[in-house]
Amino acid sequence: RLAKALKYLNTTVSQQLRDAHCPGNEDLRTWYRNLKEASDLPSDTDSSIRARLTDHLNSLQKNKHLKKPDLTAWLTTWESLLQLMRTHGMPEPTITDLWFNPLMAVLRPHFPGFVQTYRIQCRPSYKSLNYRTVSRDIKASIDDLIQPMSNRVGKGAFASFEQQSNQSNTPNKRKRSTKQCHACGHIHPTTRCYYLYPEKAPPNWEAREHVRQRVEVNLKANPGLKTGKKQRSNPVTADNNTEQSN
Predict the structure, then answer these.
(1) For the chain, first and last CA: distance in Å?
(2) Phi-psi region of 146 (alpha: psi -120 to 50; beta: other; left: phi over 0)
(3) Residue 21: which pLDDT band, with cuts at 50, 70 and 90?
(4) Which residue from 7, 109, 135, 214 has the fewest beta carbons nearer than 10 Å?
């Protein structure tokens, strides 16, 4: 059945469409969804597609109260527009500078720390970056980037902070700590960071790759973090206001 589906795809879908919407690391369902989304997009000239992408990028800058569903849907549309560009043979999807830098520019006001860390993480493979992979990375990080809005400390309120809760049985200690970890940038004492001290992590804890990368960057800059020595420079955090260029 799989062989028949692949044969049908290869004989009915053009090579250009397959290159644009059927990446080798995705399954047939993803290919079908990508092709359907592309077919639902209206036919446009190159200039009108570029205008739509510009408008779409600007729409994120105007959104001052970004929520998780908003960013997920925005990234899906952004990816679809780049797929459409690739179908039209436009250069933007194949030249990293043309799509990566504009994306980081509109994300930076919302997530400055993430943008800085992600740029550093992408440097070794910058020229070969794929917009699908970048979109998937950002979607996987949304829980860390957009925290639930609440004025009360309740059960599960800080699950996105790598399951590291500072609650205890005493009323005074049930309040969330405001001390930022110098290693991962989340809100807990550095001495309780599961990335520095994995032996302290609960059995069901799972590390996130982009946070692990952030910890490695900070450890290189401040080797004394794990021994408790004073920092020698500012760490890369989840809300750092400076960005390092490529």
Answers:
(1) 46
(2) beta
(3) low
(4) 7
Place of tokens 């405001």: 178
The two tokens of residue 214 are 């952030």
Contact 72, 26 (CB under 8 A): no
CB 195 within 8 A of CB 184: yes
pLDDT at 26: 74
Amino acid of residue 185 = G
Measured in degrees and rounded to the nearest 5, phi and psi for residue 76 equal -65, -45
DSSP-derived 3-state class of residue 237: coil
DSSP 8-75: HHHHHS-HHHHHHH--TTS-HHHHHHHHHHHHHSPP--HHHHHHHHHHHHHHHHH-SS--HHHHHHHH
Token pair listed for 222:
């401040």
Is residue 115 within 8 Å of 100, Cβ to Cβ? no
Residue 204, pLDDT > 70, answer yes
What's the CA angle centered on 52, arms 51 and 54, to 5 degrees? 65
What is the spatial distance between Cα 106 and Cα 121, in angstroms, rounded to a whole number? 18
d(CA 135, CA 84): 15
Comparing 71 with 173, which gets the higher pLDDT?
A: 71
Residue 70 token pair: 């908003």
- For the chain, give the number of residues: 246
